[in-house]
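User: Predict structure, ligand adenosine-5'-diphosphate.
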Amino acid sequence: MGIATVAAFSDADRASMHARESDEAVGIGPAEAAQSYLNADAIVASALASGADAIHPGYGFLSENPILPKLCDRNGLVWIGPSARAIESMGSKIRARRIASDAGVVGVPGYDGEDQSDARFAAEASAIGYPLLVKASAGGGGRGMRRIARPDELLPALALARREAEAAFGDPSLLLEKLILRPRHIEVQIAGDKHGNLVHLYERECSIQRNYQKLVEEAPAPRLRPETRATLHEAALRLAAAIGYDSLGTVEFILDAEGGPPLFLEMNTRLQVEHGVTELVTGLDLVEWQIRIAAGERLPLTQERIECRGSAIEVRLNAEDPAAGYRPCSGTIVGFHAATAPGIRIDTGIGAGSTVTPYYDSMLAKVIAHGEDRTSAVARLSAALGRVAIFGVRTNQAFLRGIVRHPRFLAADLTTHFIEETFPGGWRAEPGANAVERLAAISVWMRAIGSRADTGPQSPWQTLGGFRVSERAGRPAILRVRIEYRGATTPAAITGDASRFEVTVDGATSVVESRFDSDSVTLVRDGHTYRLVFAIDGARIMVSRDGAVSEFAIIPEVEAGGGQAAAARGAPRVVATMPGVVNSIAVEVGQEVGEGETIVVLEAMKLMHSLAAPVAGRIKAVLCTVGETVASGAILVEIEPGAPAA
Ligand code: ADP
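Assistant: Predicted complex:
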């Protein structure tokens, strides 16, 4: 559109892609979001100082908070988003449900009354029937929801939910909803302008979720009866009309897979993470629409001219380890191989050299596939997830690939329980022999040492093994190494060089030829060809194949020994398992604790992580304070072991 851009960044994002790629970038404060990205005054001040005339809030932080539009208004800035009034009316789930119901949009059966007394909730709960959900009216992002299975659980759950809602959102109001047992999450993208025009841009299905958070999203929703689709679009437009909606927004519904009409859930008064799938099926640029609408233009297209072509599916590639309870991971991205291909769009804010900090969300990239129908979109996505590679930080890529390749996903048999039903007991990577990965790591290592400056005439690589009858002089006849992989060490013997070598591991000998591109290696072994992408970070050699990264360390025998010390299991201290901010400390010096008791709660990447006592004993020292930012591995609390008194 030819509009110059100014990026606002926090101290943690100084070197980030958005700050580098904009025409100008301004710092707005420290890494802690509360002091930068959530600081409306700092954002508006930097907009004014840089001469910007409009603010686009993205889709996190303050994008759904009326404070920025109000401040924009007061300071002569244009707000690229809906009116503060529309944001406020949909920001409270209680108000949104009532407005929807007045507009004739059916919600999930529930209670959204003023009377917040226990007695009233108990009466309403039995009228609705169990199981049900208690939700914080001001909640969002899947937080503040609690499932209640039986009447005796209600009162304790209400008390806890009120306290949590007050602490997290500053508003203790709660509502009750019937728990839909086989729900599909379907949402309608709508757009309105300041002239009273409204259109829908079709629907998206976001049923694949974990912890009430979306992981896979697609447009259009598969297996939907035409009447149901029409009802969805019509209901979304009716609600938008009722609040005079004048921007891009999304109306969310639950559809009971067992049948029944779509039930209104809530409305998001902003652009959403998953807007890309709608862009691919409609061929429209939704951010361009937002900007045109904010500038006072009429909607670029009328409803009849908006088409939905083919199918688009998105996955959220997150820095988290599904094999370790989806623990968020942080660190430095050593390599990012974005495999571009027809029909594939990758939206990301990271690249090689980026650091993933514990301060913000763990999403690294969105991989979106478009095809002429759902089957081809799934095939393209699955292929892309086998080729994209992110090195240096663990990701959920192989898990996502496992989801999109699952027969149940191919059959579009979707409910929000997909993940727990498809991967009961959690998702596990297929063990895989890793033989090809290991060979690739060896050739990458051979090439790395071969091209190192220390291969001069004095280098041990050139001088070792002085006598040989079958090899060129100046090369060691046999290179003995230890290969470390997932904490285990395997000896190997290698002859040759990176382009052609023979290696013996575990008693089996392979002859390998390899060829290199900038970040990929092609191996030929026994007539089979394999292509893997790789990255090197010091002694770590990372290779990726079929969407899974394997990390090796190769240590020549002369340097071997020592190795990594095994993690001190059961050591009498509580250690930060990841970088984060100490949210609370449950103990004091001298206090007795039992094994497994929560000692410290760490906040990292918007989630709370409880750190437990590894042993029973008495607290010897507390080495952190609430609010402190701690590094991964930092010792937070020391425990004097010994059974606590009964
Ligand atoms: P948030 O604002 O925190 O995102 P939502 O009300 O949009 O909360 O709900 C998020 C998700 O929680 C839904 O997509 C769905 O998976 C689940 N959910 C919400 N309400 C219900 C309900 N009444 N029955 C079953 N699942 C629900």
